[in-house]
Automatic annotation (TrEMBL):
One Pfam family hit: Methyltransf_25
Transmembrane segments: none
GO biological process, one term: methylation
Stated name of the protein: Class I SAM-dependent methyltransferase
Molecular function terms from GO: methyltransferase activity
Top-level taxon of origin: Bacteria
Protein's organism: Streptomyces sp. SID12501
Organismal lineage: Bacteria, Bacillati, Actinomycetota, Actinomycetes, Kitasatosporales
Domain spans labelled Methyltransferase: 43-135
UniProt keyword annotations, A-Z: Methyltransferase, S-adenosyl-L-methionine, Transferase
Stored InterPro entries: Methyltransf_25, SAM-dependent_MTases_sf
Length: 225
């Protein structure tokens, strides 16, 4: 993220606490646009409370699995999901306990704001292995700002963040500002390294810088590989 004076950062935090919105959920509609209209089994890595999992289930002809390392958030996801939905949640370490299906593969895999918490190349290799031939992997990730382009996008994202927060909260009752509790872990890899490693592990993948301190990665596994 662009380096800002502490006083401005505190002001932005107070504003965002009073006008909350989810930077990751902002990309959910975009994620769905990268996927086929219908697909079989799907997996969401780092599912949180399951918002994306429930969206994925609307297109799945089979089932959707949400995986998160936090048992408490997995319990919350289960509580927010209809028992009749073709959805399952499990608490597991992605790198060591990722469940597989009958053939260990999924037609769709999504991963939002998670891979910077993991060994990056190893995590991408694992997701590649679990993706069925012809399947689609979509990642929304965080990278450390390094280049002038990174800082320019970060600077532009600040007023854009305020505008989007105001629009999304327009007409809602005022929220009393509270201290931000769960801070996003800072990314250690710069965007250049993210791209190099991604293209090494996932040849032909498409990686793009995005607004609100995110990048996106889309890879479709060849039907023969």
């Amino acid at each position: 993220m662009t380096i800002l004076p502490p006083s401005l950062l505190r002001a932005l935090e107070r504003f965002h606490a009073a006008h909350p919105w989810d930077h990751n959920a902002h990309y959910h509609p975009w994620i769905l646009r990268q996927l086929p209209r219908r697909y079989g089994r799907a997996l969401d890595v780092g599912c949180g409370s399951g918002d994306l999992v429930r969206l994925l289930a609307g297109r799945s002809t089979a089932s959707v699995l949400g995986v998160d390392s936090d048992p408490a958030i997995v319990d919350r996801a289960r509580g927010l999901t209809s028992p009749a939905a073709p959805i399952a949640f499990t608490a597991a370490d992605v790198m060591t306990g990722l469940p597989g299906g009958p053939d260990g593969s999924y037609d769709v895999i999504t991963c939002v704001a998670v891979v910077h918490h993991l060994p990056y190349a190893d995590a991408l290799a694992l997701l590649r292995q679990r993706l069925a031939p012809g399947g689609t992997l979509v990642v929304v990730g965080l990278a450390r700002a390094e280049s002038p382009v990174d800082h320019l996008l970060g600077g532009f994202a600040i007023p854009a963040n305020v505008v989007v927060a105001w629009v999304k909260n327009r007409g809602r009752p005022a929220v009393r500002p509270v201290a931000m509790s769960a801070r996003t872990r800072a990314a250690e890899m710069g965007f250049g390294e993210v791209v190099r490693e991604a293209r090494r592990v996932l040849p032909g993948c498409r990686v793009r810088r995005r607004l609100f301190w995110r990048y996106t990665l889309v890879w479709r596994r060849p039907t023969r590989s």
